[in-house]
Specification:
Elements (H helix, E strand, L loop, with lengths): L14 E6 L2 E2 L9 H16 L4 E3 L16 E2 L3 H17 L4 E6 L5 H12 L6 E6 L11 E4 L2 H10 L27 H4 L5 E3 L7 H30 L1
Helix pairs in contact: 1-4, 1-6, 2-3, 4-6
The structure holds zinc ion (ZN).
The site of zinc ion (ZN) has 5 residues, from helix 1.
Length: about 240
């Protein structure tokens, strides 16, 4: 079921699922909403497989993207996001949902999501926040390491929505070198002139690998959901 479509009596006793991503530059060839679209696909798959048990929240498309420096992004600060998500989780609990699974598509959200999880979970006995992340997956899928807008993300997007991958714009990227310290001490625009962090070579686009990556991620999200269900059943008993 979808949160915006159910009535107040339908929310109780369900598990909430919310996708969270970013609105930020993904090189010259991928959409600004790449991370949000991927997380949203996973969360909607879960809702369509378990419509009676899962409530799909509207996607939180904005995230924390300061690591992009002078390249375009639309986002909020870490502290605002922590407060926003903690409030959201607390009201989810008050509304009678059993737990909340956050499906994250964006690396810049990782550390704040860990804080939110700790803040909510250590203050509540039964209601828990669970995190499922797309970050750091599929490192061995290509012989390059895609840290941002590279082979993995481009191939995933090609599987999800090929029309959103501007293949002709790939030619604009003439330098794939990456300076040390990206995401730690320097922003993506300082690490690579095109803001693309694909360590080891140029971008390979393989829709089959993109599909494999998304389907494997869904299988892992589904098994997280089944574990959440199991722990809720134990809590009940
Ligand atoms: Zn991304």
């Amino acid at each position: 079921m979808k949160l915006l479509e159910v009535t107040r009596d339908q929310v109780k006793g369900k598990v909430g699922v919310i996708a969270i991503g970013s609105v930020e530059q993904h090189g010259p060839h991928l959409p600004m909403g790449t991370d949000s679209l991927m997380a949203e696909w996973l969360a909607s798959q879960l809702e369509s497989s378990y419509p009676e048990e899962v409530i799909l929240f509207p996607t939180l498309t904005y995230g924390c993207s300061f690591e992009h420096g002078n390249q375009p992004f639309i986002g909020v600060s870490y502290i605002n996001m922590i407060n926003f998500l903690t409030d959201l989780a607390e009201s989810t609990k008050r509304a009678g949902l059993l737990s909340l699974i956050i499906v994250n598509g964006h690396g810049g959200n990782e550390s704040l999501l860990d804080v939110v999880r700790r803040q909510v979970n250590f203050a509540n006995d039964k209601f828990k926040v669970y995190l499922f992340s797309m970050v750091g997956r599929d490192k061995g899928l290509f012989n390059v390491i895609d840290m941002h807008a590279g082979s993995v993300e481009t191939s995933r997007m090609f599987f999800l929505k090929p029309s959103l991958v501007r293949m002709e714009k790939l030619k604009e990227i003439r330098d794939f070198s990456v300076k040390e310290g990206v995401f730690q001490t320097i922003t993506t625009d300082k690490a690579n002139p095109y803001g693309v962090i694909n360590v080891g070579g140029d971008i390979q686009v393989d829709p089959k690998k993109g599909e494999e990556s998304m389907r494997n991620a869904y299988a892992d999200l589904e098994s997280l959901f089944l574990r959440v269900k199991q722990s809720l059943a134990i809590n009940e008993g």
